[in-house]
Specification:
alpha+beta; 4 strands; binds inosine-5'-diphosphate; Nucleoside diphosphate kinase; ATP-binding; metal-binding; Nucleoside_diP_kinase
Length: 148
């Protein structure tokens, strides 16, 4: 089953949105495989956002993502990578549809509440970057027979 990396950014944690965001993924039918509240180091931030290192907003992005705790998660389920991106909405919350996480909770691209892997390759990379193998749990949920 597919897995993806999702993270409530420091603005989402400070604004008490963790519960609502977790509830959306649970209600959709996805299964939580791992989760933790953590402070991202400068080094981890620069590695995670490495593809943006030449962008003008890189410094601001690293400062922001290290400015307070984040809530890191691994979610599992059929087509979860693409579906999580749909549930998050467009990168700029002003372009994000209503009923998406960014559409409902964000106003600016710099503080857009949530991160989610954008491909199979980045999901694998980001899960390995943020979680040890033993922090991820393989288990059955009875609801799955009603979801699939
Ligand atoms: P994504 O988070 O939707 O995958 P990316 O293009 O990978 O979007 O950008 C990573 C993050 O960088 C965004 O979520 C956003 O917080 C931040 N970002 C993107 N563009 C800008 C910008 O123009 N100014 C400030 N921050 C930006």
């Amino acid at each position: 089953m597919e897995r993806t990396f999702v993270m409530v950014k420091p603005d989402g944690v400070q604004r008490n949105l963790v519960g609502d965001i977790v509830a959306r993924f649970e209600s959709k039918g996805f299964k939580l495989a791992g989760a933790k509240l953590m402070q991202i180091s400068q080094n981890l931030a620069e590695t995670h956002y490495g593809e943006h290192s030449d962008k003008p907003f890189f410094g601001e992005l690293v400062d922001f993502i290290t400015s307070g705790p984040v809530f890191a998660m691994v979610w599992e389920g059929e087509n979860v990578i693409a579906t999580a991106r749909k549930m998050m909405g467009a990168t700029n919350p002003q372009d994000a549809d209503v009923a998406t996480i960014r559409g409902d909770f964000g106003l600016t691209v710099g503080k857009n509440v949530i991160h989610g892997s954008d491909s199979e390759e980045s999901a694998k990379r980001e899960i390995e970057l943020f979680f040890l193998n033993e922090e991820l749990v393989d288990y059955q949920k009875n609801q799955d027979t009603w979801v699939y």
